[in-house]
Amino acid sequence: MNKVYLFLIIIFVLGAGGYLLMKSYSPLTEPISEAPQTMLTPTTTSEIVAGSSGTDAGATAQSNKAKEFKVDGNEFAFAPNTLSVAKGDTVNVTFTNTGKYPHNFVINELNVQSKTVQPGQSDTVTFTANKTGSFQYYCSVDSHKDKGMVGTLTVQ
């Protein structure tokens, strides 16, 4: 009879342990939300200096003005997820974390990396787009990049 009770106790303990283990289980990944596919291209105004041909003054005024972008990041996407600038442009990206986990903004090829930003906070990075091509920007926190937190900067 003792063996039967011991067997029942072992079955009960294993069953209770399995139940508690399954009850506390939560998926390791967050659901991926799709960001709207938008492209943001800033516009600049040029100023023509009186007495000049207009071409040189306009080009100078346009090249001195920084391109301003506001990029929001959340779980796990950027908005907008596409940016476009010209080679040689000075670029200011204000990255705002609109999610519930820490995020950042990184472009390896252009040596750009924001601070890791807490929810509701922002950080601004300034850089010169000195190479042409398409460059991926992403969040380097944990595996956020692998979960789809990426975008594309095109430099023409």
UniProtKB/TrEMBL annotation:
PANTHER family per record: AURACYANIN-B, COPPER-RESISTANT CUPROPROTEIN COPI
Natural source organism: Candidatus Gottesmanbacteria bacterium RBG_13_45_10
Pfam families associated with the record: Cupredoxin_1
Origin organism lineage: Bacteria, Candidatus Gottesmaniibacteriota
Keywords: Copper, Membrane, Metal-binding, Transmembrane, Transmembrane helix
GO molecular function per UniProt: metal ion binding
EfeO-type cupredoxin-like domain span: 60-154
Membrane-spanning intervals of the chain: 6-22
Acyltransferase as UniProt keyword: no
UniProt xrefs under InterPro entries: Cu-binding_ET, Cu_oxidase_CS, Cupredoxin, EfeO_Cupredoxin
Listed name of the protein: EfeO-type cupredoxin-like domain-containing protein
